[in-house]
Write a structure and sequence with these properties.
By secondary structure, the protein is of the alpha/beta class. 28% of the residues lie in helices and 24% in strands. Among the domains are: 124 residues, Rossmann fold, CATH 3.40.50; 70 residues, no CATH class; 163 residues, FAD/NAD(P)-binding domain (3-Layer(bba) Sandwich), CATH 3.50.50.60; 64 residues, Alpha-Beta Plaits (2-Layer Sandwich).
């Protein structure tokens, strides 16, 4: 026989200010199988929880209804309270009188009171059919996979490895470092980017708990939190890194000169190369698209038509350790992990659609990142800012903000957050490079919202940069000058500025392959293909897939300090996960009655978490089986099952029917 206790919370005035609590108590006492009704100012407070525990013991209650706020807020709190009184924590139901009633009926007390009674009636009818549930315990593989070797991934790897756990860091480029490695200096302190990044890169390479896999990509992810099985494709480098010492002889002698991706094609690199001088690992890969010998092999495999391309193989001849391996092929490596951190970063927006601004039309219209590479002492121009068209030093430079950001027509509706600040940085640095340079910044709004950013923006103005509020309508070329025509909205007039160089402040967007990776990891992503956190405020580095965490700019535009902080936050979540001996899996998951299952397997297709497998019974029938470690209890399989074989613990069809019968009686 059920003995139900109902505990009604005032929640200060959040509930009591709209709901007539005495009337609700009176109605609740008349409900069948309700043995005790009690009101508290705050059920979630320590005195409130103590009152619930005492009432359970004193009145020998075996079911509990908490009429308070959303279960998202305090369900775990009340489960612990009920368990402390000796009751199974899943013999408790929460009736949401705050969000579902009081807050939506703030101007109609009588309606709110009637609805509160109905909500409690439904909860009482449902809790009668609750069953004791018991969480499962599963082992944990205490190894972490980090996808992405930018500053966020590097920070996360170092924090987890220092805590004593094994880390595998996968980066699809030949080196770690990410976008930060391409920067000359960082705002607002103007620190040398390489000076603060390179030591961390070296620490990653030398740490005994970190395995570095560069030039590799994640191919497939299976399993669940604590027990992921990941297939990683190690792309063929054509260089045996176990033999290579990184002496540099090969790339110094290679005759091929190909566009350097690291320098945004402003400079050249050999076909066997490291992306930049401080690359980690400092060992080369062979660019098979430009290597003379691989071109010869392709020509030979195609049937030897036409003139044979030259065979080079100089790198193979001069390598002192015989590290060149032409037979090397892509390999798929399968590893097991307990947690995954996604730190895939971002890519700069491609401005070629802005033809009226000269993007892709005039060589002297460059992006902010291209200017950054010019300013770098290790860049293609050795730190000299030169016009791509003729190599002269520009004296009049115009900056244009919000290219690809805050533009729903050709770009993205969001603000990319860092553009205003790196333009201010460039204006300051150009003045330092050449005091005779005049900088003009066309802006919509200046957004300097983090620590010391406003002061940095003012410093750019004080250095001589002229900020003009308005948009540019068109850029044309006349007599070797770029004529920038735009509106000064503060003066209310059109202006024209003859410029030697125009710098487009391009924004951030999702990295290539972000949506594919998200689907592989069963993680949600938004319309802009940025990963979605479980909760942007309360769970900012977690995802709805347990054990998968996010860090850095893969979630949205972030600067370096935010990326580092999120990398450490994700690492803290992983170490907390690994601090347990085993995982406790929530028992409120789906289950399938195999006697009713027809084997249509529709549930396997609609399950977003791939938590349903198949099983062949002794009688030869194929039925669906739920992997409870993967199931999130969303109930889609229950809704889709045409034979009623699927059910959801804690929300069975019988329980939901009882709620309807209770409120309609």
């Amino acid at each position: 026989m059920a003995r139900i206790g109902v505990f009604i919370c005032h929640c200060g005035t959040n509930i009591a200010g709209t709901v007539d609590i005495p009337k609700v108590i009176e109605a609740t006492r008349k409900m069948p199988m309700v043995a005790h009704v009690e009101e508290n100012k705050y059920n979630c407070s320590e005195p409130g929880q103590a009152a619930i525990r005492d009432a359970i013991k004193k009145n020998r209650l075996n079911r509990v209804v908490i009429a308070a706020c959303s279960p998202r807020m305090h369900e775990n709190t009340f489960r612990k309270t009920v368990a402390a009184a000796g009751l199974n924590p899943y013999l408790m139901e929460i009736s949401n009188l705050r969000e579902h009633c009081s807050w939506v009926h703030s101007d109609a007390k009588e309606d709110a009171t009637d609805k509160a009674i109905e909500l409690i009636t439904m909860a009482v009818a449902k809790v009668v059919r609750h069953e004791a549930l018991f969480p499962q315990k599963v082992p944990i593989t205490k190894r972490t996979l980090i996808i992405g070797g930018g500053i966020a991934g590097i920070q996360a790897a170092l924090d987890i490895a220092t805590a004593g756990y094994q880390v595998v860091l996968v980066e699809r480029d030949p080196t770690i470092g990410g976008r930060m490695a391409q920067l000359d200096k960082t705002f607002p302190t103007l620190d040398c980017s390489s000076c603060i990044l390179t030591p961390k890169m070296v620490d990653v390479a030398q740490h005994p708990n970190i395995t570095l896999m560069t030039y590799a990509e994640v191919k497939e992810v299976k399993g669940f939190v604590g027990n992921f099985e990941v297939s990683i494709t190690q792309k063929a480098r054509k260089v045996d890194h176990t033999k290579c010492t990184g002496c540099g002889t090969c790339w110094q002698k290679c005759p091929v000169k190909a566009d350097s991706e690291f320098d945004l094609k402003l400079g050249k690199r050999p076909a066997i190369y490291i992306p930049f001088a401080q690359a980690v690992p400092p060992k080369p890969v062979i660019d098979t698209d430009n290597c003379r010998y691989t071109k010869y092999l392709q020509w030979e495999a195609a049937g030897k038509e036409g003139k044979a391309p030259p065979q080079c193989r100089i790198c193979e001849k001069i390598c002192p350790t015989q590290a060149i391996d032409w037979q090397q092929t892509d390999q798929v490596i399968t590893e097991k992990f307990g947690a995954i951190i996604v730190a895939t970063g971002y890519r700069p927006f491609d401005p070629k659609g802005y033809t009226e601004l000269g993007a892709g039309v005039y060589p002297d219209v460059v992006t902010g990142l291209e200017l950054e590479r010019m300013m770098s002492a290790s860049g293609p121009t050795s730190g000299e800012v030169k016009r791509p068209s003729d190599g002269t030093h520009p004296k009049e430079v115009v900056f244009v903000t919000c290219i690809g950001s805050r533009d729903e027509q050709r770009g993205h509706s969001y603000c990319s957050k860092v553009c205003c600040m790196y333009i201010a940085k460039h204006a300051i640095m150009l003045k330092e490079h050449d005091p005779e340079v005049n900088c003009y910044v066309f802006y919509m709004d200046v957004r300097a919202v983090s620590k010391d950013y406003e002061e940095f923006y003012k410093r750019a103005q004080e250095s001589g940069a002229t900020y003009i509020r308005g948009k540019i309508s068109r850029i044309r070329e006349e007599d070797g000058k770029l004529i920038v025509r735009g509106e000064d909205t503060l003066l209310g007039e059109m202006i024209e500025i003859p410029a030697d160089m125009v710098v487009l402040g391009i924004g951030m967007e999702h990295n290539a392959g972000a949506s594919t990776l998200a689907q592989n990891l069963k993680v949600s992503y938004d319309i802009n293909e940025f990963f979605i956190e479980a909760h942007p405020k309360l769970r900012p580095v977690e995802t709805m897939s347990d054990g998968v965490f996010v860090a850095g700019a893969c979630v949205g535009p972030r600067d370096i300090p935010e990326s580092v902080a999120s990398g450490s936050a994700a690492a803290a979540k992983v170490t907390a996960l690994f601090g347990q001996d085993f995982l406790v899996v929530d028992p409120m998951v789906s289950f399938i009655d195999q006697a009713k299952c027809s084997g249509c397997l529709l549930c396997t297709k609609i399950c977003p978490f791939k938590a349903i497998d198949t099983k062949v019974l002794r009688d030869g029938r194929t039925v669906a089986v739920v992997n409870e470690s993967l199931c999130k209890g969303c109930g889609l399989c229950v809704a889709g099952c045409r034979f009623g074989a699927a059910n959801l613990r804690g929300f069975t069809q019988q329980q939901l029917l009882a709620q309807l019968e209770g409120v309609l009686a």
